[in-house]
Write a structure and sequence with these properties.
The chain starts with a strand and ends in a 9-residue tail after the last helix. The protein is an alpha+beta fold. It has 2 domains: about 100 residues, no CATH class; about 300 residues, Cytochrome-c3 Hydrogenase, chain B. Strand 9 and strand 10 form a beta hairpin. The longest helix has 28 residues.
Length: about 450
C-alpha cells in the first residue's frame, strides 16, 4: 500500500497526524505535552522528509526514526520556533548561532566529497547536492533543499478561500495549471457543486498543454546535457511557440489565472498548432533515434528499477518509466478522450526520455478529443466548513492538495508536490554512474524545487 502523504494539524488542544494511503486515511491524535508518534520511515522511505518537515514545523518527535536531522530549518534557524503551530505569528525571526548540518558521506581511502550548490550556474533554483566520490564513480549523493522556504502553508492560514488563489497558482511555475485544477476541485467540493464535463474538458486541455510544454523543455535539455546542443535549439523553439499559444489562450505564458468558473478556448487555432507540433515531434523522434552516441549515454544511466520505484512510492514520468502503472489520469473520463498509459521498462534515462515523447503525442491526441463548443459555467456556492482533498496528474506526477476550512477561512492548507516524493528516490539512481552524468539524470527527472520548498 503506497503512502501518499503524512502531515500534521494543530488543533489547539492537541496535534493530529494524518496519513493518506492509496486506499485509506488514518488519523492519530498527539498529546501536546509529549508530542511523539511512531515513525513510518523504516517501512516507507518517502516518510523521511515528511517526518523531518513535521518535526521542524510542529516540534513533533517520531519514535524509531533513523534520521532526525533538520530539513526545513537550516543552520541559523532558531531551534525552538515551530512556524506551523497556531501560536506562531511572527512576521520576522532573528537568526541564531550557526549549527553545522551533518551530511551523509562515505568514508574510506581515496574517497572524496564534491559539494554542488546551492547556487548553480544558469537560471535554476537553489538546491545542494553532496557527492561522495571514488574517482569518477559516485558512491553516494545527498540532496538538500529548502533554501527558498516561503512559509506558504502558514501564509494562507486565516485568509478567505478566494484570497489564496493567486498564491496557490504560483507555488510551482511548471505545474500552475495542475495546482489551479486541484484548487478548483476543492472549491467545487466545498460548494457541493459538480464541475460540468465540458468545463473539465477545457481544464484538461490546458493541463495537457502545460504537460506538453514541460516535456518539450526536457526533451531539449536531456540530449543537450549529453553534449547534443542541436536538440535543445530545436526544442526551445517549439517550447517558446507552445508558451505563446498558452499566453494567447489564457493571457499568461504560465497560464496564471486560467482555471476559472468559465473558460473560453479557441480550439481552431489550438488544433492548427498541435497538428504542426505533432509533425515536428515525430521528426524529432526519428532524428534522435538515429544518433547512436546519444543512446549510448542514455541507456544504463540513472536506472531506477521497478521494485525500487515502488518502494520509494515515486510518481509521474519517473514511476511510469520504471514500469509502475501509476497515473491520476488512468480513469474512465480520461480514457474516453484517448488517454493511454505510457510505460518504460528499466527506469533509465532512455526510458524517461521515450516516455516523455510518447506522452507529448498522447497529449496532442487528447487535446483534439477534448474539443468542445459547449459554454457551461461553474456556479460556486458559499464554501462549507470541512476538510477537502484533491489529486491531479501534473507534468511531474501526482499532486496531492488538502485544505481545511473552518469558520469560513483556511484553517490548514497542505500540498504534497510530486517532487517531494521523487527527490527522495533520486540518489538511488546515481550509484556508480559518473559525476558528468549527474546533469543528464537530473534533467531526466526534472523535479521542482519550488513545489518542494513550500
Amino acid at each position: 500500500m503506497r503512502l501518499i502523504a503524512r502531515f500534521a494539524l494543530d488543533k489547539l488542544e492537541n496535534f493530529e497526524i494524518i496519513d493518506v494511503y492509496e486506499s485509506k486515511i488514518e488519523r492519530q491524535s498527539v498529546d501536546k505535552k509529549n508530542p511523539t508518534v511512531k515513525s513510518l520511515m523504516s517501512k516507507y522511505p518517502s516518510a523521511i522528509w515528511m517526518e523531518r518537515k513535521i518535526k521542524d514545523e510542529f516540534g513533533i518527535e517520531f519514535e524509531g526514526a533513523f534520521d532526525t536531522r533538520p530539513l526545513v530549518k537550516h543552520e541559523r534557524f532558531p531551534k525552538h520556533i515551530y512556524p506551523l503551530r497556531k501560536d506562531f505569528n511572527k512576521k520576522e525571526i532573528d537568526f541564531t548561532v550557526f549549527t553545522p548540518y551533518k551530511y551523509e558521506e562515505i568514508e574510506g581511502d581515496n574517497v572524496f566529497v564534491v559539494p554542488v550548490g546551492p547556487i548553480h550556474a544558469g537560471i535554476i533554483e537553489p538546491g545542494h547536492f553532496q557527492f561522495s566520490q571514488a574517482g569518477e564513480e559516485i558512491l553516494h549523493l545527498e540532496v538538500r533543499h529548502y533554501y527558498k522556504y516561503r512559509g506558504i502553508e502558514k501564509m494562507v492560514e486565516g485568509k478567505k478561500v478566494n484570497e489564496i488563489k493567486k498564491i496557490v497558482e504560483r507555488i510551482s511555475g511548471n505545474e500552475s495549471i495542475a495546482y489551479q485544477i486541484a484548487f478548483m476541485d476543492i472549491l467545487s467540493q466545498a460548494s457541493e457543486i459538480e464541475i460540468p464535463n465540458s468545463l473539465k474538458q477545457k481544464y484538461f486541455t490546458l493541463l495537457e498543454l502545460e504537460r506538453i510544454i514541460h516535456h518539450l523543455t526536457d526533451l531539449g535539455f536531456i540530449p543537450n546535457d549529453a553534449g547534443f546542443g542541436a536538440a535543445l535549439a530545436f526544442m526551445s523553439k517549439l517550447t517558446e511557440e507552445a508558451r505563446r499559444v498558452m499566453a494567447k489562450i489564457t493571457g499568461h505564458r504560465f497560464g496564471f489565472g486560467a482555471i476559472k468558473e468559465e473558460v473560453e478556448i479557441d480550439y481552431q487555432e489550438l488544433t492548427k498548432f498541435i497538428d504542426y507540433l505533432k509533425k515536428e515531434v515525430e521528426f524529432f523522434e526519428d532524428w534522435i533515434n538515429d544518433i547512436a552516441s546519444l543512446w549510448d549515454r542514455f541507456n544504463t544511466t540513472g536506472a531506477l528499477s521497478r521494485q525500487k520505484a515502488a518502494k520509494y512510492g515515486v510518481v509521474g514520468v519517473t514511476a511510469r518509466a520504471s514500469g509502475v502503472e501509476l497515473d491520476v489520469r488512468n480513469n474512465l473520463f480520461y480514457k474516453n478522450f484517448g488517454y493511454k498509459m505510457q510505460l518504460g521498462k528499466k527506469g533509465e534515462v532512455s526510458d524517461r526520455f521515450r516516455v516523455r515523447i510518447k506522452e507529448v503525442l498522447n497529449s496532442i491526441e487528447m487535446i483534439k478529443n477534448f474539443k468542445t463548443d459547449k459554454k457551461e459555467k461553474l456556479m460556486l456556492n458559499e464554501f462549507k466548513d470541512g476538510e477537502y482533498m484533491s489529486f491531479v496528474e501534473s507534468s511531474i506526477g501526482e499532486l496531492f492538495m488538502y485544505m481545511k476550512i473552518k469558520d469560513g477561512v483556511v484553517d490548514r492548507f497542505y500540498v504534497r508536490d510530486p517532487s517531494h516524493i521523487n527527490w527522495q528516490a533520486f540518489h538511488t539512481t546515481i550509484y556508480k554512474d559518473i559525476i558528468a552524468d549527474f546533469p543528464l539524470i537530473n534533467k531526466s527527472f526534472d523535479l521542482s524545487y519550488a513545489g518542494n520548498d513550500l
